[in-house]
Write a structure and sequence with these properties.
This protein is an alpha+beta fold and 840 residues long. It contains 15 helices and 40 strands. β34 and β35 form a beta hairpin. The termini are far apart.
């Protein structure tokens, strides 16, 4: 009996020690420390070898229960729990799609699953989901007491993508990413943790995974254990959605249906923003706008940073009203901007600091400590104070009153800063009673979804109080599904250097694949610098012209600028004449593309497509596409290759199979090859896809997007080529909420083209057209390229018909030069549209 007693105690001790080692290993992951693998540490290694046999005998296997629920499009929700699992509430409201049925037992192949085109069955301690030829193996779930997680097998070398903001290579294989929203001032390439995590990932191998858990966690893509993907969290429901799809486009369409899509933005959001950190006074803001006007820059909005409510950066959060000595007549200023069609956007933060105007009134609405007293932040950069508990309805109502006060005098949009939250000690407690949860939850449990609830608060209150206006909320943190609250996130306080610039390519593409379509960066860079680099500024703005939001923004603190740095304005009007000239051209180029960019916003709402699309987005068969991660598709038609190195004279890029037109001169390149494209400071390489259509706003001089009229003549540029894709024009008044659902308030056409046997056929399928609306569409076709694709010689003639009748407009001579457009003016009424160009 004594020997049995000692054996039992040894087993028990071994199990305890190994469990603690295991917890330490996983906790190191969770907080971002290096992985403490026993085999890589002598002390841990010795203990590991001594107790490993004991561990095998003594390690208990937690008998958990699996729940499997089918959703539309063969999406499956899997949840694991066990009787003693603690703190497993689901606080996320990311998923808005309804399931096909209640949970189906996981007992092996069943007729219920097969009827859905799936097979969901147990394998060991996990589950296998089979969709067509794709097998997804969830090998096990675990609960260490400190964290809980899921492990998947990673067969083969299929690339993994997504996970939100990371200044890392886009392909995640071999990475471990932290799921914890956090700022990184002056960051560049290699920054793992940034402001906006999204626990949604996908593999080119045919499926996506959405871990619907907003607590602090990580995802390990085989870095720790080869061929094992592991996701773990400190708290919350252990729920994952398996989303099968042949391409990233198909997977993202299903994910965006599951969690919601971004509403149409106000059209002005696609224009040029005037912004910096920051304008000190009303006089300064008005002078900057006046100078931009004088230099001919179109503008649609001005963003006013934190000096609107205080003279300093610190000790002012919580004033929540104008600093009248510096801003004596804000309503007059806002109205003056509005007369020039310039919208005003103000910043807010979810913190209040002692001594500010509204600190005392905020106290009942602040998050608390464990005893229930308002939590007192003592190590916060902006001052001592508290954080608003935005999970509570009374706190939301209190905060919203300050938004409404300014919106009522004309503020058109809002900026939410520090919403990660930037300073969020783990012992801060939040009241979740409005979500039906009785216990208070700690900061780490709710941190990643705090910004999401803030966005929801602004969106829903705006919709209630301003039902005739679309909302605009610029922010830098959120969660899966936040996009449905009309958010326009930027990538945080990036370094004003080439490394910070290059870091934007993987960040914007990864966020686009994470369901967040209007991600953008502080164009030109944000952080303070000791050198003005006009080349970097120009290249960054050239890139930003083909991004969802165009907003040059950076530190220009003048009298607050530290020694060794310079005050460097972000507005192009303050740069040298050559830089200013280039900036004006590229901003005008962006305004030319307004109807194309606006159509992309509709494409996201309709199909779940992002505006920035990685090269591999819609096809995975060409292995070069996953390598070409420093370029992207801007919508379906335009390929953009930013110049990312100083003094570059060439730019290597990949053209997929098909014909590609240089956007600036219409010369044609054959795809399926890597090319070295010559560069100049005047532009970056942009190519139009053969067979594509680009709606184009023809205007010599722009002032703002308000000049655009959705009933005026509009150019439709067609780039001849063989394509099976659909291309779109969507238009409305740019301001009415949900205009896409109102038949008389929007127009939409699907364009297709076909070239065969010397005949070009262009068709327009009207999916909606307001009754009685007649609009002139000016179809533009490169004359020389048309000859080439139709196989015409110099003396060949062409017949043009529109809806079967000879084209009666001005007969234009075909020109073999590549850069000459053939123009066809057509009055369309929404009934039929077919253009044929026939070689005789």
């Amino acid at each position: 009996m004594d020997s049995l007693f000692w054996a039992a105690n040894i087993l028990r001790a071994g199990h305890t020690l190994l469990k603690r080692l295991n917890n330490l290993r996983r906790d190191a992951f969770l907080v971002g420390l290096p992985y403490l693998h026993p085999m890589k540490n002598i002390a841990f290694g010795a203990i590991y070898f001594v107790f490993f046999p004991v561990f095998l005998l003594a390690q208990p296997i937690i008998k958990g229960e699996w729940s499997a629920t089918p959703f539309p499009d063969q999406v499956v929700q899997l949840t694991w729990t066990h009787p003693t699992l603690q703190n497993n509430e689901q606080i996320s409201n990311a998923v808005i799609q309804k399931p096909v049925s209640a949970a189906i037992p996981v007992t092996g192949s069943t007729a219920q699953w097969k009827a859905l085109g799936l097979d969901v069955k147990p394998i060991g301690n996990g589950i296998e989901v089979i969709s067509g030829k794709i097998s997804i193996k969830l090998s096990r779930a675990f609960d260490s007491g400190h964290i809980r997680g899921l492990q998947f097998s990673m067969p083969g070398n299929a690339p993994w993508l997504g996970g939100g903001e990371r200044a890392l290579p886009m392909v995640r294989n071999g990475q471990r990413i932290s799921l914890y929203n956090g700022p990184a001032y002056g960051y560049g390439e290699g920054q793992n943790q940034l402001n906006y995590s999204v626990p949604f990932i996908m593999t080119i191998g045919g499926y996506g995974l959405f871990f619907d858990n907003p607590s602090k966690g990580y995802i390990d893509f085989g870095k720790t254990t080869n061929s094992t993907l592991e996701a773990a969290f400190e708290s919350g429901s252990l729920t994952v959605y398996i989303i099968p799809g042949a391409t990233p486009a198909e997977i993202l369409k299903k994910f965006s249906t599951l969690t919601g899509r971004q509403p149409l933005p106000p059209r002005w959001a696609l224009g040029n923003f005037v912004s910096r950190f920051g304008y000190y006074s009303q006089q300064q803001a008005e002078e900057v706008v006046s100078r931009m006007k004088k230099d001919g820059f179109p503008m649609d909005a001005i963003i006013i940073d934190l000096f609107w409510f205080g003279d300093s950066i610190q000790h002012t959060l919580g004033n929540l009203d104008w600093n009248k000595p510096k801003w004596p007549a804000p309503e007059k200023m806002i109205q003056g901007f509005a007369k020039s069609n310039i919208k005003t956007i103000l910043i807010t933060e979810p913190f209040t600091i002692e001594g500010t105007k509204e600190y005392n009134s905020s106290v009942p609405h602040l998050a608390t400590d464990i005893s229930g007293k308002p939590y007192h932040l003592t190590q916060f950069y902006f001052g001592k104070g508290g954080i608003i508990d935005l999970f509570r309805k009374p706190a939301q109502d209190w905060f919203w009153q300050f938004y409404k006060r300014q919106s009522d005098i004309g503020v058109a949009g809002w900026w939410g800063d520090l919403g990660e939250p930037e300073h969020h000690p783990q012992d801060v407690m939040h009241n979740m009673s409005d979500l039906g949860i009785k216990r208070k939850m700690s900061a780490n449990e709710v941190h990643n979804i705090y910004g999401h609830f803030w966005s929801q608060m602004v969106f829903e209150n705006w919709k209630k109080d301003y039902p005739d206006k679309r909302s605009f909320f610029l922010n830098r943190a959120g969660y899966a599904g936040s996009q449905r609250f009309s958010i326009f996130p930027w990538t945080g306080d990036v370094g004003r250097n080439w490394s910070g610039f290059r870091a934007q390519l993987p960040i914007l593409q990864s966020m686009s694949l994470s369901g967040v379509p209007f991600i953008h960066s502080d164009a030109g860079g944000f952080a303070m610098t000791d050198v003005a680099d006009p080349e970097l500024y120009t290249r960054w703005l050239q890139f930003a012209a083909y991004s969802p939001i165009f907003r040059p923004h950076g530190s220009a603190l003048e009298h607050l600028t530290p020694s060794g740095t310079i005050s460097l304005p972000s507005e192009p009007t303050f740069w040298d004449n050559k830089t200013k000239e280039r900036a004006l051209k590229l901003i005008n180029d962006r305004y030319h593309l307004l109807p194309y960019n606006y159509t992309m916003a509709w494409e996201h709402l309709t199909f779940g497509k992002p505006l920035i699309r990685p090269m591999v987005f819609e096809q995975t068969g060409d292995s070069n596409l996953i390598k070409a991660t420093d370029q992207y598709m801007w919508g379906s038609s335009l390929l953009v290759a930013p110049v990312l190195e100083p003094e570059a004279t060439t730019r290597k890029l990949y053209l997929p199979y098909g014909k590609w037109y240089r956007f600036h001169d219409l010369s044609v390149m054959e795809g399926g090859q890597w090319i070295e494209e010559k560069t100049s400071m005047e532009r970056i390489p942009v190519f139009a896809k053969g067979g594509s259509f680009v709606p184009y706003w023809e205007k010599k001089q722009f002032t703002s997007t308000t000049d655009y009229n959705w009933k005026d003549t509009l150019a439709i540029r067609y780039y001849p080529g063989h394509s099976l894709d659909n291309y779109y024009l969507y238009d409305d008044d740019g301001s009415t909420p949900n205009a896409e659902t109102k038949l008389e308030q929007h127009q939409s056409i699907t364009f297709t083209s076909n070239i065969q046997k010397g005949v070009l056929t262009i068709k327009g399928n009207y999916t909606n057209w307001p009754p009685m609306l007649k609009r002139v569409l000016k179809f533009q076709i490169p004359a020389g390229a048309l000859k080439n694709v139709l196989g015409a010689g110099e003396t060949d003639k062409f017949d043009i018909t529109v809806n079967g009748m000879p084209y009666m407009g001005q007969i234009l001579k075909f020109d073999s030069r590549q850069d000459v457009w053939m123009n066809l003016y057509l009055v369309t009424d929404g009934l039929s549209l077919e253009i044929k160009v026939v070689k005789n």
